Amino acid sequence: MKIGYLDCFAGMSSSRFIGALVDAGVPQEILHDALQALDVGARLDLMRIKRNGIETTKAHISLTSKDTDLESIPYYELPIFVDKYSAPEDLQLLSTIIALISNANLSEKAKDLAINCFTYLAVAEAQVRALPIEEIYFHKIRALNTVVTVVLCCTGCDWLNIDQWYASPLNVGSGMLKYPQGSLPVPTPATLQLLGDETPIISSGPQKELLTSTCAALIKALNVCFSPCPPLCIDRVGYGAGRIEYDNLPNFLRLCIGHVTDGRKHNIDNNVVITQAEFTNLQPEQIEILQQELYQKEAQLVYIMPIFTTNQVTHKLVIVSLPEFATSIRHHLFSQIALHTVHWRTEHYEGLTHYDELVLSPWGKIKVQVGQLLDNKIISVIPDLQTCQSVAQKHDLHPDQISKTVKRLFLTAKNSYYKE
Fold first, then answer.
1. How far is residue 257's CA from residue 405's CA, in Å, rounded to a whole number?
2. Are 410 and 368 in contact (CB under 8 A)?
3. What is the DSSP string of 221-260?
4. Which one, 64, 171, 242, 403, has least CB within 10 Å?
5. Do residues 234 and 274 both lie within one domain?
6. Are 167 and 243 in a shared domain?
7. CA dist 226 to 27, 192, 371, Å?
8. pTM for the complete prediction?
9. Rounded Cα distance, 418 and 420, in Å
10. What residues contact 286, with CB distance under 8 A and at least 6 apart?
11. What is the CATH number of the domain that holds 325?
12. How far apart are CA 390 and CA 74, in angstroms?
């Protein structure tokens, strides 16, 4: 299982994330191809620089069509959101941004991640402003820069093909941000809204915004887990440098990529989206084709249940998928079936880490299957049933006696707590 770990001791920005992705092995060509697919006149420059003596990669985005170096402009001159009374040429709607991303020649996973990121961002801003999402406007130039950085981040994540993302507690920074409408505290209300009540945060270092709302949305779209990271073998490490150097904080993002040790397969605490729709008048062969198409859209499970009423039979379609694929699945349903509504909800699931070990017993080596939680607590130890039965028959013992002895020997060796 491939794990990505974001070490956010100095917070996180999209440019630092891009630098860390490249430093960790994402080919530059992949990102330049994504820029060409967007076709918005943006340029990506990557530089090797040192931060606190550590070799890092710094990513710089510029909009050549506007002849504007976005990183040289103070943040408050380019707020990500503006009100509806701003100049019309500065306004950009969420629907326009989604259309731009959808029409680009990008992978479906990268598109879905990017669209989810902007949707989360707009919804959070609407919630803290107590406005309908239709009245949330992005600043056109800032939004274009954000589209570029978000798409590059999502493209890099797609190329890495991480099974599960983890992160350290997030350093959000402190101080105040100046906007044309006034000042806001760090972290901004939208950032806190995006992080929710299960994300651990800290505030350390300079009085700056260290975690942007864009990255808070990216973290949510990537379904980053903040529970203890499973034991890893580190394959690659990437360092993405920020624009400013601080005296008391190394301004870079560290990305560790590794795999679960001992070949163990981890089923971790995670979210899935349950999508449901009801339909009539589909032939069996049409239903079979639809199921195949949904699996190609990365659905994990697709099944259909008949609903019998007095006059007709209606079918309920149920689809289980990871959150990053739910949007494309819903869009596919609307495009293939005559539907009025599609319902979906998010559910939690948790599984155990399962791996096999050999236990040296008085009757020789016996294999056991071990079930372990993310905090390394052992929950179950199951000796191989056929081996226990064979040993019991050979030595005139009961299989349960063999099983209990093997469990006890294993747990004594591991020095773990286990409740019978």
1. 39
2. yes
3. HTT-B-SPPPPEEEEEEEEEE-SS--SSS--EEEEEEEEE
4. 64
5. no
6. yes
7. 28, 16, 21
8. 0.63
9. 6
10. none
11. 3.30.70.120
12. 75
Can you name the residues that pair with 255 across neighbouring β-strands?
6, 238
Domain count within the chain: 3
Q: How far apart are alpha carbons 10 and 170 in whole angstroms?
A: 8
- Whether residue 243 lies inside any domain: the answer is yes
| Token pair 């239903």: residue | 287
Based on DSSP, count helices (H) and strands (E) in the chain, helices before strands. 11, 20
Assigned domain for 419 exists? no
CA 143 vs. chain centroid, Å, equals: 21
Q: Which two tokens stand for residue 68?
A: 């504007």
Structure tokens of 140?
Answer: 């056109």
* Token pair of 202 as six digits: 């800290």
**pLDDT by residue, tens only, the chain of 420 residues:** 789 999 999 999 999 999 999 999 999 999 999 999 998 888 899 999 988 889 999 999 887 654 444 445 443 344 555 555 444 555 567 788 888 899 999 999 999 999 999 889 888 888 888 888 777 767 655 677 888 999 999 999 999 999 889 999 999 999 998 766 678 899 988 899 999 888 999 998 899 999 988 999 999 999 998 876 777 889 999 999 998 888 888 999 999 999 875 544 444 556 889 999 888 777 888 888 888 899 988 898 998 888 877 777 788 899 999 888 888 898 888 888 887 788 999 888 766 777 888 888 989 999 998 887 755 678 889 999 999 999 999 989 999 999 999 998 888 877 543 444
Distance CA 381, CA 216 (A): 39
